[in-house]
Design a protein that fits this description.
The chain is mainly beta. The protein is built from 2 helices and 7 strands; from the N terminus they run H-H-E-E-E-E-E-E-E. The chain has a domain of 78 residues: Immunoglobulin-like, CATH 2.60.40. It is rod-shaped, with a radius of gyration of 50 Å.
Length: 225
């Protein structure tokens, strides 16, 4: 028995096994699966990983509806071209997320502003012109500190032409003016107009007395700013 064990070495057994396989006609080979032979049913759920997917092979048609959420989108990667026109609603915008840089020039029309929402603080100084005002909208209540200033009298003798000038107090703006004669006698006015030297703050009148004498006064409506 001891002699028999010495005969059965690893080499003997391997050689014998190879001869048996060759005589039986059995062959063992490792091959790959034929093209398109592996179906979905052949793949265990969850076994396909990122390295198994060829780059660019997952198209929009491969994605189920609502399968891509915020967590799947890289921050800052979506641009205007990726968002369908007119698809964003007010509920999609975070509070305070739309500021002046996000609004195009001349993009906000009157219909976008609720009635009564624009207050004095939203209107730039000197931005409203006469074309922006409806007719008969400015009255005494809308005019601030409108006062009348009157010049001292200018005595004009017969045949003379002299002027009287009044200046609005406290650098007020002149918005109109006129004249007055002290005596109800024949006299004439050559002009009544804002002062040529100081048209924003003064009013000048020039008159002539043909006979006798009279006293000329200039007056102005002044708006205190």
């Amino acid at each position: 028995m001891k002699r028999l064990r010495n005969v059965f070495t690893y080499g003997n057994v391997t050689a014998t096994f190879a001869v048996v396989l060759a005589m039986s006609g059995t062959a063992v080979a490792v091959t790959t699966a034929p093209r398109d032979s592996v179906t979905s049913a052949s793949i265990k759920n969850g076994e396909v990983r990122t390295p198994d997917v060829r780059g660019g092979s997952v198209t929009a048609a491969k994605l189920a509806a609502n399968s891509v959420g915020s967590g799947k989108v890289l921050n800052g990667s979506l641009q205007g071209a990726d968002i369908r026109d007119d698809s964003l609603l007010q509920s999609d915008l975070a509070t305070g997320s739309v500021g002046t840089p996000e609004i195009a020039d001349d993009a906000v029309s009157r219909t976008k502003i609720p009635e009564g929402e624009v207050t004095s603080s939203e209107i730039a100084n000197y931005s409203i012109g006469s074309n922006d005002l409806n007719g008969n909208t400015i009255g005494a209540l809308q005019v601030k500190d409108l006062v009348t200033a009157t010049s001292g009298g200018t005595v004009i003798a017969a045949g003379q032409s002299l002027s009287a000038t009044v200046t609005c107090p406290d650098l007020g703006m002149v918005v109109g003016g006129g004249f007055a004669w002290q005596d109800d006698e024949p006299s004439s006015i050559i002009y009544s107009t804002p002062s040529e030297a100081n048209p924003n703050h003064s009013w000048t009148v020039r008159g002539m007395v043909p006979a006798g004498s009279n006293t000329l006064y200039a007056w102005a409506n002044c708006l205190n700013l």
